[in-house]
Amino acid sequence: MAPVPVRGGMPPRPDLSNLMMSVGFMLTPTRFLDACRDRCGDYFTLRPTPDRELVVTSDPAAVKRIFTGDPDLLHAGEGNVTLAPLLGPSSVLLLDGPEHLRHRRLLLPPFHGERMRAYGQMMEEVAERRVAEWPAGRAFAVLPSMQAITLEVIMRAVFGFEDEERRERIGAPLRRLLDTVASRPRVLALALTAGRNGPLSPWRRFAAMRARADALLFEEIRARREDPRGAEGEDIFSMLLAARDPAGQPLSDAELRDELMTLLLAGHETTATALAWTFEQLTRNPEVLGCLLAAERDGEEDYLDAVVKESLRLRPVIPAVVRCLQAPMVLGGWELPAGVNVAPSIYLMHRRPDIYPDPLSFRPERFLENPPGTYEWIPFGGGIRRCLGASFAAFEMKIVIRAVLASRRLRMRPGARPEGVTRRAITFAPTRGGRVRADRAAAG
Ligand code: HEM
Predict the structure, then answer these.
(1) Could you give the angle at the alpha carbon of 113 between the alpha carbons of 107 and 115, nearest 5°?
(2) Alpha helix (H) ranges present in 133-194?
(3) How far is ligand 1, taken at its centre, from the CA of residue 198, in Å?
(4) pLDDT-above-90 percentage for the chain
(5) Distance CA 439, CA 219 (A)
(6) Is 303 in contact with 24 (CB distance < 8 Å)?
(7) Atom 42 in ligand 1: which residue has the minimum CA distance?
(8) Could you tell me if residue 178 is inside a domain?
(9) Do the bridges between strand 140-141 and strand 52-57 make them parallel or antiparallel, or are there none, so unpaired?
(10) Backbone angles phi, psi at 69, to 5 degrees
(11) Is residue 185 in some structural domain?
(12) Residue 190 belongs to some domain of the structure
């Protein structure tokens, strides 16, 4: 391939006023991204805030270079700084360089295949119980039910399965705290009142809840450290207590607190939203549901796997990831200066017709016939920052889908307009919460 000539300056900006850009970005994010791509192509520059420039790209070659590039030159932690008040400064999501690597290595073992499968039975039990609560014979939004499942699953995976009372003592305040960042308006209210302690300040409420949750978490950390068998359990908490870095050092109490919070936050809303999208898609595509039911009956796992992948392709939950350049970098012929944020667009990559023919249709078969390359299907980001919980999430999604198929008959809505996309806190979610109708499956 001929080398692309190097151009100075930044990729084009869509010819929209700053106000229109902010409004589009916030309120109709997918339409906005489609319009930018149509006007500017595979690279464009946005300015989400006056002091921040973001180069968005959906060029597979650029995305590969970003994901395989030197992580010391492509900082991801800086891009996630808005999460610091909740997660704390030692969260793997916020770190860069050697500290990021140290934390990532300590966090990986609980997410390895065998370990993860140990959570299967618990996931199944939670899913079956929650799905049994679904109303029969009327349409409802499936997202809240999915949130309840994934939150209970991650709480139980983190804290352990046995002592429910102890788990709930920490679990209830943590749930309330996580709820303060569950929607865009709430996150915005926190950002606007950060540090202000007036009587009506959302920030003050948040800080009080965080202090209460932290006190309980630190008490639990102390209790487990003092217990000679505290690090022997199968739960993630115990495994993190036992983990040692190559220098033989464990995570400190403060680091442990931040990582526990990170897993709780990263581990539930994302998976719940992905599941809501999957059911929203399945009810609109009777042939796909038919194939899925047949494959499940025949014990063929591949089709369910393809359904999950196709759902995460067409409706990626996280629309983009961000890397902050620590040195100039040439991408797609543009010479980008240090300090610029580059954002591989998951959403736009997944809609490229050259990679995904007929990109708007929900067709799991494409993953069986002609699977995309590593840097072309990127719902979990990539490289050294790729989602730590990717296998956990896919495994959980399959268990929940199976629990639904086993006990419910989804009512089809062929031809119904797909739900629009709305921004929740960090996710792209269905505007109506993924409305479905599900009758109880006939017994036997
Ligand atoms: C469908 C569900 C999920 C989606 C779509 C998702 C997506 C992502 C994405 C896009 C990233 C950023 C990757 C990058 O910057 O390249 C990420 C990072 C991360 N995710 Fe997930 N995630 C999901 C579920 C989970 C679960 C279940 C957990 C934990 C139990 C988890 C834990 C994390 C952590 C710890 C990171 C930070 C990794 C690092 O910075 O090294 N995620 N996820």
Answers:
(1) 65
(2) 143-159, 164-179, 184-193
(3) 35
(4) 69
(5) 45
(6) no
(7) 389
(8) no
(9) unpaired
(10) -75, 170
(11) no
(12) no
Residue to probe by mutation, ligand 1, list 152, 271, 387, 391, most atoms within 8 Å of CB: 387
- Please write the tens of the pLDDT for every residue from 20-75: 777 787 788 899 999 999 999 999 999 877 778 899 999 999 999 999 999 999 99
> Which of 150, 380, 385 is the pocket-test mutation for ligand 1 (most atoms within 8 Å of CB)?
380
Task: Say which CATH number the domain at 117 has.
Answer: 1.10.630.10
Residues 36, 16: Cα–Cα separation, whole Å: 10
Q: Would you say how long the chain is, in residues? A: 444
Q: Decide the pairing of beta strands 341-344 and 52-57.
A: parallel
Which range marks the domain in which residue 418 is found? 18-161+234-440
Residue for token digits 């352990």? 160
The encoded tokens of residue 240 equal 């993190």
Cα–Cα distance measured from residue 205 to residue 120, given in angstroms and rounded to the nearest whole number: 36
Query: Quick one: CA dihedral 62, 65, 70, 71, positive or negative?
Result: positive
Tokens representing residue 189 in the block: 């209210």
334/314 Cα distance (integer angstroms)? 29
| 1 within domain boundaries | no
Ligand 1, residue 273: give the atom nearest the CA.
Answer: 1
Whether the per-residue pLDDT at 444 is higher than 80: the answer is no
Q: Is 104 in the pocket of ligand 1 (CB under 6 A)?
A: yes
Asked if residues 131 and 116 have their Cβ atoms less than 8 Å apart, the reply is no
Q: Residue 1's pLDDT band (boundaries 50, 70, 90)?
A: very low
Estimate the share of the chain in helix, then strand, then coil, as percent rounded to the nearest 5: 50, 10, 35
**d(C-alpha 245, C-alpha 261), whole Å:** 20
Digit-coded pLDDT (tens) for 76-85? 998 788 889 9
**Which residues lie closer than 8 Å to 9 by C-beta, 6 or more apart?**
334, 335
- In the chain, how many domains are there? 1
Phi-psi region of 12 (alpha: psi -120 to 50; beta: other; left: phi over 0): beta
d(CA 214, CA 207) in angstroms, rounded, equals 10
Residue located via tokens 């220098």: 247
**Which own/partner contact pairs does 241-247 have at CB distance under 8 Å and 24+ positions apart?**
243/106, 243/107, 243/109, 244/106, 245/102, 245/105, 245/106
- Name the pTM for this structure: 0.94
140 Cα–ligand 1 center, Å: 28
